[in-house]
Specification:
about 270 residues; alpha/beta; 2-enoyl-CoA Hydratase, Chain A, domain 1; Lyase 2-enoyl-coa Hydratase, Chain  A, domain 2; six-stranded mixed sheet; four-stranded mixed sheet; 10 strands; binds coenzyme A
C-alpha cells in the first residue's frame, strides 16, 4: 500500500511521533481499518524508546476528524453498533491510559468520535479555525466512544451537557472558557506549538511524567481517600527512581553552588 493510501500516517520529529488520520476526502471520518491502524501505530510509538510524546492530527486543512463514518454506521444492527463502540472505546482508553504523554493537534473539525479522540489525549492544542461538537444528538443518537464520560471528566457536567445535549458546534475560541483546550495557535503555527509542548514534556524524566499521569487519571474515579492512597503509592514508586534522586540532588547542588558563589563575591567589610 502506498503511503497516501495508508489509513494512518506516522512521522518522527525528534522525540515526537506524529500520527495523522489519512482520509481527508471524508474529513477523516473513522473506518474500522483506520481505528485498527491507529491502535497499531499507538503500540509502535509506545514500544519506541526514543518516542517520548505522541501527537494526533488529521490530514487536509479542514478536519481533525468528523467522527464515525455515518455511511457505514447506518447499515449496522444494534449488536454490530455495540461492538463498534466497544472497539472505539478500547483504543481511546489505551490513549487515555498510555505511559507517554499525548497531544491532540486539532486542525479543523473535531466532531463526534473526533472530539472523543481529542478528549482522550492529555492535551488539546487547537488551530484558531478548529471547532468542536458532539452532533450525535442531531442524528437521534449519542456519543459512544467515551464522549459522555470523557467530556464530564475534562470540562465538568454542565459544559458536557451543553455539548452532548445541544449538538451545537463551538469554535476553538468559544471553547477556551470550557477549560479543555491547552493552547490555541494560528493554523500555520499549529505544529510549532505542538512541537514546543512536546519538547517541554520530553525534557522531564519519562517515569515521573508517567507516574504523575497515572495518578491524575485516577482523580474523579476513586473516592478522595483511595485517590490519595494511590497518589502516595505512585509517589513512593517514583521517589525510588534514579530520575527522582537525580532531580532532587541537582537542585540541592545548584542551590549550594549559588550560595557559595554569592559568599565568594560578597564585599568584605573592613
Ligand atoms: N461520516 C462519513 N462521511 C463524512 C462524515 C462522517 N462523519 N463527515 C463528512 N463526511 C464526508 C461527506 O459525506 C463528504 O463526502 P462526499 O464528498 O463523498 O460527499 C465529505 O466528507 C466532505 O463533507 P461535506 O459534508 O461535503 O463538507 P462540509 O464542509 O459541507 O461539511 C461537516 C462539513 C463536518 C459540517 C459535515 O460533513 C458533517 O456534518 N459531517 C458529519 C459530522 C457528524 O455528525 N459526526 C458525528 C458522526 S457519529
Amino acid at each position: 500500500m502506498t503511503n497516501d493510501r495508508l489509513p494512518v500516517l506516522a512521522s518522527q520529529h525528534g522525540a515526537l511521533r506524529l500520527l495523522t488520520l489519512n482520509r481527508a476526502d471524508k474529513l477523516n471520518a473513522f473506518t474500522p481499518e483506520m481505528l485498527a491502524a491507529l491502535d497499531a501505530e499507538i503500540t509502535d510509538a509506545l514500544a519506541h524508546d526514543a518516542t517520548r510524546v505522541i501527537a494526533l492530527t488529521g490530514s487536509g486543512a479542514k478536519a481533525f476528524a468528523a467522527g464515525n463514518d455515518i455511511a457505514r454506521l447506518v447499515s449496522l444492527d444494534g449488536v454490530a453498533a455495540y461492538r463498534d463502540m466497544m472497539a472505539g472505546q478500547r483504543v481511546l482508553l489505551r490513549l487515555h491510559e498510555c505511559a507517554k504523554p499525548t497531544i491532540a493537534m486539532v486542525n479543523g473539525y473535531a466532531l463526534g468520535g473526533g472530539f472523543e479522540l481529542a478528549l482522550a489525549c492529555d492535551f488539546i492544542v487547537a488551530s484558531s479555525d478548529a471547532s468542536f461538537a458532539f452532533p450525535e444528538i442531531t442524528l437521534n443518537t449519542m456519543p459512544g466512544w467515551g464522549g459522555t464520560q470523557l467530556a464530564v471528566a475534562k470540562m465538568g457536567l454542565a459544559c458536557a451537557k451543553r455539548f452532548v445535549m445541544s449538538g451545537k458546534r463551538f469554535a476553538a475560541r468559544e471553547c477556551e472558557a470550557f477549560g479543555f483546550i491547552h493552547e490555541i495557535a494560528a493554523p500555520e503555527k499549529l505544529f510549532d506549538s505542538v512541537s514546543a509542548l512536546a519538547d517541554s514534556l520530553a525534557s522531564y524524566d519519562p517515569f515521573a511524567v508517567e507516574m504523575a499521569k497515572r495518578a491524575l487519571n485516577r482523580a474523579g474515579e476513586l473516592p478522595l481517600s483511595a485517590g490519595l492512597d494511590f497518589e502516595a503509592a505512585q509517589y513512593a514508586v517514583n521517589f525510588s527512581s534514579d530520575g527522582a534522586r537525580t532531580g532532587l540532588r541537582q537542585f540541592v547542588e545548584r542551590t549550594r553552588a549559588r550560595s557559595t558563589a554569592q559568599a565568594n563575591t560578597a564585599p568584605v567589610t573592613p
